[in-house]
Amino acid sequence: MVNISLTVNEELFEVSVREDLRLIDLLRDELGLIGTKEGCGEGECGACTIIMDGETVNSCLVMAFQANGSNILTIEGMEKEGNIHPIQQAYIDVGAVQCGFCIPGMVLSTKALLDKNPHPSKEEIREGISGNLCRCTGYNKMIHATEKAMEYMEEGK
């Protein structure tokens, strides 16, 4: 067992983890943050995307002990004071959500993109969400949702 401390959604956790425990399993099974989805388990689909120290990572490919000292944002941390994030609202407003399985990863990839580049081009948006697969809506609505999120964030919604 390894003792680690990490901040998840602005809350400090100090936990003992097995050396073979993946970060996604820590988040879902130990911390109860089930918004992070496991799709392929091989880092191909992006369903398990989280933001760790400002960068998107596939939490199925990160060992829990590697997150020691990290600051992590999961989809649950997007809500503030009972309000969903403008990115989440944009995804809803443009109909970019169908089954919802890929959406937590898509939203976090969109957030990471907009945190670094508040005005990305369509090509930059495509690149920003390229690590996430969606089998339902296609990607045009995701791109439109990102553009709508840019508007909402500028308006302060």
The helix content, as a percent range, equals: 25-40%
Low-confidence region ranges:
none
Tally of DSSP helical segments: 5
Q: Per DSSP, what share of the residues sits in E-state strands of 2 or more residues?
A: 15-25%
Q: How many beta-strand segments? A: 5
- Shape annotation: globular
- What distance lies between the first and last C-alpha atoms, to the nearest angstrom? 44 Å
Estimate the mean pLDDT confidence.
Answer: 95
Structural class: alpha+beta
Largest sheet, described in full? 5 strands, mixed
Strand order of the largest sheet: 2-1-5-3-4
Topology pattern, helix = H, strand = E: EEHEEEHHHH
Report Rg.
15 Å
Task: Report a brief summary of the structure.
With 157 residues, this protein is α+β, with helices and mostly antiparallel strands. It is built from five helices and five strands. A five-stranded mixed beta sheet has the order 2-1-5-3-4, with helices on one face.
Write up this protein.
With 157 residues, the protein is of the alpha+beta class. The chain contains five helices and five strands, in the order ββαβββαααα. A five-stranded mixed β-sheet has the order 2-1-5-3-4, with helices on one face. A hairpin with a 2-residue loop joins strand 3 and strand 4. The longest helix is centred in the last third of the chain and has 16 residues, at 140-155. The mean pLDDT is 95.
Which helices and strands appear, and what pairs or packs with what?
Layout: E1 2-8, E2 11-17, H1 23-30, E3 49-52, E4 55-58, E5 71-73, H2 86-93, H3 103-116, H4 122-128, H5 140-155
Parallel strand pairs: 1-5
Antiparallel strand pairs: 1-2, 3-4, 3-5
Helix pairs in contact: 2-5
